[in-house]
Write a structure and sequence with these properties.
219 residues; single chain; mainly alpha; 8 helices
Length: 219
Amino acid sequence: MRGAEIRRLLAANLLCAVSIVLAAVGPAFFLDGFSVLGTHLTWLCVCSVSVATLNIILHLVLKPSQSPKRSSFAHKISRFLKCCIYFFMSCILFHAIIVLYGAPLIESVTETFLFAVLLSTFTTLQCLCLLGPNIQAWIRVFSKNGAMSIWESSLQITSVCSILGAWFGAFPIPLDWDRPWQVWPISCSLGATFGYTAGLIIAPLWIHWNRKQITYKSR
């Protein structure tokens, strides 16, 4: 396993982590009264857009999954449209799952959907950037020993950390502490964000420490 590839992964992940920090502090210079807790819906939008934009740019620049085959312009347009549809379907699916886990069905629909968009940005968007709209490849990556590159291993770790962070973030909501961050879905979205950020840092470090034991199957 090449050390240069691990350093590229670390640099890309650190940039994503920095984009989350900038999404939390940057808008305050342009929007009066902005704060992560006070204007949480605005922060959800800013965070999702900034992370999504940076992930797409990094994918285009680093090309971690570049195919040796050259595709036509029509194929690229079709692939892009499929990715958009998959991402929207992911948002709807996450929204439904969140409601099934106890989120308000009628009230706070906007909050729940924006939280679903954030989760899709942390998970589905990465799958689309790295693997494309290929469900079989997604299943392969998230199966046991299914990763074929350090980028896919990082995808596994960051996605799982994001979901776990959102799940753990739900625990304080029913407690009677009367804290502003207990309002739906602040603790869950913050938990997902902290989980995603932790995954970004953990992934390259874990891969580096276990590089001698990790072997990837050829495609």
